[in-house]
Amino acid sequence: MADTEFQDLQKSIQRYISRKERKELSLNELVLRKERVEDKKKKDDDKKKEEDKQKGEGPIFPKGFYNNELIHIAIDYVNRMKSLNTASK
Fold first, then answer.
1. How far apart are the first and last CA of the chain?
2. Residue 88: CA count within 13 A, CB half-sphere
């Protein structure tokens, strides 16, 4: 888990799960406002990225933890297929 984007995603997932499971809310207005501002900022950032993606702006295969993992899986698959082909000959 060296990729910072993946770690950020994990944190977002954990925050979502903890908020979903909690049975109480803080009555401290500052705490609630801070949470809402953070949520709104994250939502706006995600919305902007999605809009840019749909407009066709940016790279076709952007750098990121997900695409990096896809590349690693593909390389592992190719290497595995090569080893199977050489073993059968």
1. 38
2. 6
Opening angle at CA 68, ends 67 and 69, nearest 5: 90
Contacts of 61 (CB under 8 A, 6+ apart): 67
Candidates 39, 46, 1, 40; CA nearest to 20 is 39
Distances (CA, A) of 29 to 9, 15, 25, 36, 37: 27, 19, 10, 11, 12
Instruction: Please report, for the chain, the start and end positions of each structural domain, with discontinuous segments joined by +.
Output: 25-58, 61-89
Residue indicated by tokens 């698959």: 77
At 71, the pLDDT band (50, 70, 90 cuts) reads: very high
Quick: pLDDT tens for 15-41. Answer: 889 888 888 877 888 888 888 898 888
Give me 44's structure tokens.
């706006």
Alpha carbon distance 65, 46 (integer Å): 16
